Each structure stands twice: as structure tokens, then as C-alpha cells.
Amino acid sequence: MDNDSVAIVGGAGDQGFGLALRWAGAGKRVVIGSRSRERGEDAARRAQAALGDGVRVEGADNSEAVSRAPLVVLTVPFEAQIPTLTGLKAAFRRDQIVVDVTVPLETSVGGNPTRVVGVWAGSAAEQAARHLPEGVRLAAAFHNVSAHALQELEKPVECDVFVCAEQKETREALRPWVEAVRNCRYVDGGRLENARIVEALTALLIGVNRRHKIPAAGLRITGLEP
Q1: Comparing C-alpha atoms, which of 13, 14, 11, 7 is closest to residue 147?
Q2: How far apart are CA 79 and CA 108, in angstroms?
Q3: Most distant CA pair in the chain: distance in Å?
Q4: Domains of the chain
Q5: Tens-digit pLDDT profile for residues 45-85
Q6: Angle CA(52)–CA(186)–CA(145) in degrees, nearest 5?
Q7: Helix or strand run (H / E) with residue 174
């Protein structure tokens, strides 16, 4: 598998499609996965139309996408997280890295997107880790990056990205993928349990967007080297 390639599960959705655009535009090979091959291929065609010739972006169903890249990014709603991972269990390979972008917003139970629901495992990311085969590494990242900002290709994305994982080497493996998104900055978020805080910040940002009538609030950490 190409080490410069990524499979995006749920890549036809807003967040996944935005990441696909940014990474394909940066020269990465992107496989957009969806529940059906047709939806994945349609999203790939839309990405190619937006980015022009020469980009490496393909469409597939989620299972095929997972089998074609060493890095897998899960961008599905919270209520779909466990069914999706369970359905893909046979497709994962040892030493793959799965990046969970899931936020347990209250909308999953008909509530408000400015609130999160409690998760028995502690966070959506910790829940995801329990549903992956042995030998597959889990990281949490990109929760606070606005889908709107990702798809505004003429503008940089003004947001730091916290990356949480149990192993430092897993966190560091995500650095080039964060930095491939123009103006995003990698921030080591520590162990996976810290995803509990990072996920909740997304609900806070949604509230900021609503109150200030803006589309894409982001976070910046002061005191770090640029």
C-alpha cells in the first residue's frame, strides 16, 4: 500500500469530503469511501472537478477503501460509528492507523449540536478503539476543523489540530497529514483519553459559530513555535 495514501470512510459527507479536497490538492492519494461504491465514485468526480487534472482521488465503497491505504480516517456521525467499524472489521490490516474524527454530539439522539452526550468509554475515540482489531492503531484528530473551512479551497484553514493517541509515534505519524492542510498546525494532544476534551471543544465551536454568525470558528494555541 502507498504510504502517501489515505482512505476516508464516510468521505462523501461534509467533513470527509473537505479533508479529501485538501489532501488531494496537496498531492496525496485519496480514496473516498462511502456506503456504496456509486456514492464514493460520485464524490471522487466532484473532487476532481473542483481540483482539476492531475489529482489522485478515487471512489470506492468503505470496505474497499480501507483495504487500499495504510491510513484510514473515519468521518461518520456518532450514531454510525460502531456499526461502521463493526462492518469493516474484516477489512482492517495490522499496523494500519485509524484516525477517528467522530464527535458525540447530542444530535445523535435528537438534541442540540452545541452539546455532547456522555460516552461510557469516555470519548468517541476511546469507544472506537474498542471496536478495532488487534494491531490496528487508533488516533483522534481533526475534530475542531470546520468542514466549511476545508471546502473553501481559496482560503487557508485557520486552525490548530490536536492529535491524541496512546503512542507518541502514532501521533507523530499524523503530523505530515495535518501540515498538508494549508495553515493547519500539528499539536501533540497526548494520550487518547484527552480526546474527551478535544471532542467537546467541537460543540463549543458550533455554539461560537451560531452566536457570532460565522461559518468556521477554529482554535489556535499560543506560545508554540509557528
Answers
A1: 14
A2: 6
A3: 46
A4: 5-212 (3.40.50.720)
A5: 999 999 998 999 999 999 999 999 999 999 999 999 999 99
A6: 60
A7: none
Buried/exposed 180-200: b ≥16 CB within 10 Å, e otherwise: bbeebbbbebbebebbbebbb
pTM over 0.85: yes
User: Do 40 and 60 touch, CB atoms closer than 8 A?
Assistant: yes
- How many CA within 13 A on the CB side of residue 193? 0
Helix, strand, coil in percent for the chain, rounding step 5: 40, 20, 40
Going through 124-188 in order, the beta strands assigned E by DSSP cover 137-140, 160-165, 185-188
- Residue 85 C-alpha cell reads as 467499524
Confidence of residue 3 (pLDDT cuts 50, 70, 90): confident
pLDDT of residue 225: 79
Around 84, how many Cα atoms within 13 Å sit in the side-chain half-sphere? 28
Distance CA 58, CA 1 (A): 15
| Residue with the three cell numbers 492542510 | 181
Is residue 164 within 8 A of residue 194, CB to CB? The reply is yes
d(CA 45, CA 43): 5
